[in-house]
Amino acid sequence: MSYLSLDEEQAIIELRPMSGFVETSYVKQFVRRALNYIKAGIPVHFRGPTGSGKTTLALHVASKLKKPVVLMHGDDEYKTSDLVGGEHGYRYRYLKDNFIASVLKVEQDMAKQWMDNRLTIACKYGYTLIYDEFTRSRPEANNILLSILQEKVMDLPAQRQGDEAHYLKVHPNFCVIFTSNPEEYAGTHKAQDALRDRMVTIDVNHFDRNTEVAITQAKSGLSQKNTEKIVDVVRGMRTSNPCEFPPTIRSCVTLAKAIAVSKAKVSAKNPIFQELVQDILVSQTTRSPWSPRRKEIENLVRSLIKKYC
Ligand SMILES: Nc1ncnc2c1ncn2[C@@H]1O[C@H](COP(=O)(O)OP(=O)(O)OP(=O)(O)O)[C@@H](O)[C@H]1O
Ligand SMILES: [Mg+2]
């Protein structure tokens, strides 16, 4: 029999293999590298541009570790207490009997009580922590991670009850997968050197062609041949200069889904297809409707359609 607070339960995710997850040799090799570091007790960090598959890969790698997962998203507003925990006015607890499933007793009290937040829960029970976009939190909020990753202890505020030393020994099974966008992205902070030094950073770039085709096809249901044409147009845009934002795998999927729904023929001669591609790819790769490069990008899309479709 065990006491679990409802909040602890809500913080935990039991990951099952994702339906529709595409595992090409590129993906398998990436996952193998990451798992190797994690098994050696080293936190991993997937760093890459938007849409490079970081979060999906983090969830997939975590699912391979076969233990509960705690997910946190970096936020500029976070303070250390948002990660660790704080005092709250009331608390629900329920008594769960592991042997008699029907036994469930709910207790409620109004006293100020310490409530562990996600980081503390993961450290205490040895869960996998996915800290997605961790550089969106300010470095001061993330300082708590330094001793967790190095000395394997967590400093706890004095208010936390039931812990005389105000330290929590980090469970040996605890592990972390970080993700981030490169530092020059809007809304990200520079991670402190000491934190970066405590993890292995694996740079994630756009997927190889084979993987992009497989993901786009799995998500849209388009034929292999038509999917390849779309992926080639998107990849052609990425390697050309005028785009302000390179199109991502999301652009491939959005375009393929729109084509599948409209049943538009994937052909340079089809004006509906031309219109769909212009709508989706031009808007996703320009900063504003008045972008000085807009005309250039529209012409680029036209020439790529001609080349591949
Ligand atoms: N292996 C995969 N199998 C199936 N779909 C995938 C795979 N990898 C990525 N995707 C899909 O590609 C898209 C982008 O992936 P994801 O959201 O993980 O990227 P990201 O790098 O975390 O982007 P952002 O920086 O914007 O958060 C998503 O729609 C996701 O479902
Ligand atoms: Mg993401």
Please characterize this protein's 3D structure.
- The protein has 309 residues and is α/β, with parallel strands linked by helices.
- It folds into two domains: 202 residues, Rossmann fold, CATH 3.40.50.300; 100 residues.
- Helix content is 43%, strand content 18%.
- It has a six-stranded mixed β-sheet with strand order 2-4-9-12-3-13, sandwiched between helices. A three-stranded antiparallel β-sheet has the order 1-6-7. It has a two-stranded antiparallel ribbon with strand order 5-8.
- Helix 2 crosses helix 3 and helix 12 crosses helix 13.
- The protein starts with a strand and ends with a helix.
- Adenosine-5'-triphosphate binds next to helix 3 and helix 11.
